[in-house]
Amino acid sequence: MRYLPKSTAERQQMLAAIGKKSIEELFSSIPERYRLRKPLNIPGPYSEEEIIQYFKARAAENSGGYTSFLGAGVYNHLRSVVTDAIIQRGEFLTSYTPYQAEITQGTLQAIFEFQTLMCQLTGQEVANASMYDGSTAATEAVLMAERLTGRQRVLAARSVHPEYREVLRTFAKNSGLQVEEIAFTKSGTVDPKALQGLLKDDVAAVVVQSPNFFGAIESYGALAAAAHSCGALLVVVITEAVSLGLVQPPAEADIVAMEGQSFGLAPSYGGPFAGVIASKDKNVRQMPGRLAGQTTDSEGCRGFVLTLATREQHIRREKATSNICTNQALCALAATVHMTLLGKEGLREMAGQNLSKAQFALGELLKVSGVRRTFDAPFFNEFTVELPKSVKLVNAQLVREKIIGPFVLGTAYPELTKHALVCVTETTTRAEIERFAGAVKKALEQPV
Amino acid sequence: MNTRIKKATRHTNQSEGLIFEKSSPGKRAFELPPLDVPAADPGRALGKVYRREGVEGFPEVSEIEVIRHFTRLSTWNYAIDLGMYPLGSCTMKYNPRVNEFVARLDGIATEHPFQPQELSQGCLKILRLLEKCLLEITGMDALTLQPAAGAHGELTGLLLIRAYLEKQGNPRKKVLIPDSAHGTNPATAVIAGYEVENIRSGPEGQVDIAKLREQVTPDVAALMVTNPSTLGIFEQSIPEIAEILHTKGALLYMDGANMNALTGVTRPGDFGVDVMHLNLHKTFSTPHGGGGPGAGPVAMKKILEPFRPVPILVEKEGGRLALESVRPDSIGRVKAFSGNFGVLVRALAYILAYGPGVRQATEDAVLNANYIRKNLEGVYDLPYSLPSMHEVVFSDAKQKKNGVSTMDIAKRLIDYGFHPYTTAFPLIVHGALMIEPTESESREECDLFIDAMKSIAEESASQPELVKTAPHTTRVKRLDEVGAARKPILRWKPGGSRSEAAD
Amino acid sequence: MAYPKQYRYTKDHEWIDVKGDLATIGITDYAQHELGDVVFAELPKPGTRIETGKSFGTVESVKAVSEIYAPASGEVIEANATLNATPETINKDPHGAAWLIRIRLTNASELGGLMDASGYEAYISAKGKEAQA
Predict the structure, then answer these.
(1) Residue B6, domain member (yes or no)
(2) How far apart are CA C25 and CA C16, in angstroms?
(3) Closest approach of chain B CAs to the CA of A380, in angstroms?
């Protein structure tokens, strides 16, 4: 077998060298009745080519050749081939967690750069080396707020990604956290009156997202002031990181939980992505996950190490800030390379293209009779429209034209019965947008 | 250093600044195709929330500088592609390249989790086949592929146990955890809302059955066991352990980190485990990438199936597959979307490459570990004498007489061209050296490792200072971890002197 | 390093210096030596109540965390703010400048169970012999 660097002869020699007659003897500590006496019933062995053919056949059964207008937390963005050229290097791909700093300075310096980029993007003071994804980062941010305030009530805006709120509820149950929801206004943003009504001095965190699940951009100033006036922390969730190229960062937030997928990570049917947690320096000892810190060696040379490890599970065990061990290091590296490639101007330009194309798409859709814009708050690359017909039915028609239509908001918000969340990025061409609008028009004109 | 050891050193001596220190305004590394729609005016479109100045401090470099910067950084790393990692309980095996290739295919990497399910049958078939293979390997009844890492899987597993017991009327209060356990175990139990109660290992490093009998009270929800243990030794009494727990209505959770000793040879479902997680980035070859991404699927017996996190993969009429999210007893969602799909693809590719022959990998892993053990017995102290499976734990007791600790030996091993083994774990061995070669090491590599370890033992006796001040051949020497923790510098800030990057 | 005669000591290596109904608490030289280079101390805020035998804070090195257990019950009046900037004082002067907290005692009679300096010195020397055995 090509992955096993031993010949039969070598195996025999090694067995002889340790005084064993057969490999069976090395498994004698497993009670006989539990030892498998027949081979596992699994397919294979496959040659390299057969493996490739298997997956190519699966790929052909997916959405090849379709244009998509889906966002809702996972975004199609341009990815440079340079990123893969870097992360496919064996020294990055097959390296271990950098506990032995002297021989993992590459990984550690890259993490340090990632942490810096995250602070620059979010306007926060410190960021960690990554979490699993945005949804678990948001949950960890809330748990962090609980530790910092000693309080148990959490107010989460309904306009936060529905799956993120589900994840939060799954884990909140066992921490004694009580999660309540904040309504949204006609503009699509957090309802300040509803928030005020819920705020008391027993609230640990107010959780909002921007741009939110409807695509609407929130204003942090008032939200932060309201939360802080009761001693609660403001947690801001960001699912579309490219927005930070043109939208004010949540500097007023106490903790930011972000999804880094938009920076160089393929949609990959939902993962692996790169969660980010960022906060103020004074909160660092309550942060979960790894942190890379700058230091010097015995000869004064600059180097990097994992630091403040006493927060983590391998030292603190049951009192750790989190149980996280393996995180998403290679994804964070991909994001780091991607952000470095884009640079200041590239990010701005990419964000600008997203904004322009989304505005154009909205314009084209509003030309279609019966389509109405919902929510008047500013948006980045996603917006909500209301159709005169069920979105599911319209999407079924669109699929026939090889278009994957917008997210059906009714599945997560029962009151938004005919509303759709349309996403347009720099990867969507003008022609595709026009074709999409045309297809929507045609679908609406069809008798039901 | 012993000159007969011929292992090439891998570290270049060139320093490299931070990318921010190389920036110059106006430089770019990536260009976009021209905008084909009217340009929106961001000031007008965004109003007060417009970030006029862009992201301050973001790098501004050219493409070649990006390539050089990260290529140089990469040359400072040790990696499996360069040589052995004898890290115990990490299973640092070869990461097959075909796995990388298939994960990147158009139609695999490009799929959106919310796209219509009829356009995702390829993805769903991959998930279904992986589920089937992992169920066959573990001997369990149901699986979830959602968790993003082992610790995430542990938490999911404990939440399943909690939901099951709650449904019976009482979630109970405690989880028993052996003192030899990995740190994620107690950290996870606490997050799942349980108190941790330690159970002391017996004199052979195994779960002490008598103590277990005493400690399993009606308050105990589960025991979290690693099998083989973190000493690399098979828990012989595991069927008894399962029985003791089950009679008291508690469950047996198995940390599957050490599956590399069991795959194809025995199945946890057969010897009494109720629920377990797997580490795909260990046993199933998905790359460590410097710290992830991984995946931690959870396999369980039928009794826990109703509580599985959503979404659940189901087979519908005509063989069509679907993901369903409505399950009244489910513990809920543990992650957005559907697991670390890209990692799952790689694990399936690995399994397909071996087929039933994956047993050979297990046998080679156990052979390598025993070969190393036999050759280093007597050179290093062996605190537990029961047979080792895929890993062996020594201690630094002999070398400590000259003041040389496991950490020093580990650092000196770097000079011989290897990554250190796992130091200072498990906690029940003072000064532990935990060694797991995996099946990916040839006899030659094992021999080189044995020679290096023997040489270091000699040095510890005759030149202890050499070992205590190692490593000597790396670009950076021992780094000041104390300073890093006292005055943490966790990001670059403009205005720092370039001279900080002293060569 | 000498163990001040007027202090009292716990089995968990804390010292307490009592003056009337006020007391100062710290960790001993033995404790700091076991811990290694101290990087951080987490101490309770003024006003916090601490209880005999219960943990009231931690002292950390790079790779370990040590809980600090209260030798007596009381209310925290002051925590040593200088340790934020210079936690290494705990290594250099554990019995003096690196005092951790000052409290107002609620029950002076609890102190009866604590060791005096010579008792503590005998205790740690026995521990040393045990470790070498």
Answers:
(1) no
(2) 5
(3) 8
pLDDT band at A101 (very low <50, low <70, confident <90, very high): very high
How do residues A179-192 score in pLDDT, each as one tens digit?
999 999 999 999 99
Of C62, C87, C88, the CB nearest to B481: C62
- Domain extent, residue B368, equals 357-483
The pLDDT mean for chain A works out to 95
Residues in B closer than 8 angstroms to C62, CB to CB, are 481-482, 485
Which stretches of chain C drop beneath a pLDDT of 70?
A: 130-133
**The two structure tokens encoding residue B406:** 């496991």
Report whether A306 contacts A289 (CB < 8 A).
Answer: no
pLDDT at position B203:
87
My answer on whether B348 and B361 are in the same domain is no
- For the domain with range C8-132, which CATH number is right: 2.40.50.100, 1.20.210.10, 1.20.120.140, 3.50.50.60? 2.40.50.100
Do A405 and A420 contact (CB within 8 A), yes or no? yes
- Predicted TM-score of the model (pTM): 0.95
Q: Give residue A303's pLDDT.
A: 95
CB under 8 Å to A161, separation ≥6 — which residues? Answer: A72, A73, A134, A135, A209, A213, A237, A239, B336
Which position has the token pair 């005759």?
A: B462
Residue of A nearest to B339 (CA): A271
- Identify the structural domains of chain A with CATH numbers, from first to last: 67-78+344-445 (3.90.1150.10), 81-338 (3.40.640.10)
Q: What is the mean pLDDT of chain B?
A: 93
pLDDT category, B4, cuts 50, 70, 90? low
Residue holding tokens 């521990």?
A: C127
Neighbours of C131 (CB within 10 A): 8
pLDDT of residue B7: 55
Residues on chain A touching B329 (C-beta within 8 angstroms): none
Within a domain: residue B325?
Answer: yes
The verdict on B215 and B302 lying in the same domain is yes
CA-based angle B140:B145:B146, to the nearest 5?
135
What CATH number does residue B453 fall under?
3.90.1150.10
Q: State the Cα–Cα distance between residues B386 and B380, nearest whole angstrom.
A: 16
What b/e readout covers A277-287, taking b as 16+ CB neighbours within 10 angstroms?
A: bbbeeebbbbb
Q: In terms of domains, do B319 and B197 share one? A: yes
β-strand A255-259 against A275-279: which pairing, if any? Answer: antiparallel
Q: Any chain A CB within 8 A of the CB of B272?
A: no
C36 and chain A: CB distance < 8 Å anywhere?
no
Tens-digit pLDDT profile for residues A267-280 = 999 999 999 999 99
Residue B10 has pLDDT above 60, yes or no: no
**Rg of chain A in Å (alpha carbons):** 25
Is A26's CB within 8 Å of B367's CB?
yes
Count of the separate structural domains present in chain B: 3
HEC string of A302-317 equals: EEEEECCHHHCHHHHH
Pick A78's closest partner by Cβ from B18, B32, B71: B32
> Given this model, what pLDDT does residue B406 score?
96
ipTM: 0.97
Nearest CA in chain C to B401: C132
- In tens, the pLDDT along A349-366 reads 999 999 999 999 999 999
Q: Across the interface, which of A74, A339, A348 has its CB nearest the CB of B112?
A: A74
Please provide the size of chain A in residues.
448
Chain-centre distance for alpha carbon C38: 14
Looking at residue C46, what is its pLDDT? Answer: 95
- Phi, psi values for residue B277, rounded to 5°: -115, 160
Indicate whether A8 pLDDT > 90: yes
- Range 104-143 of A in CB contact (< 8 A) with B: 104-107, 109-113, 115-117, 119-121, 125-127, 129-130, 132-136, 143
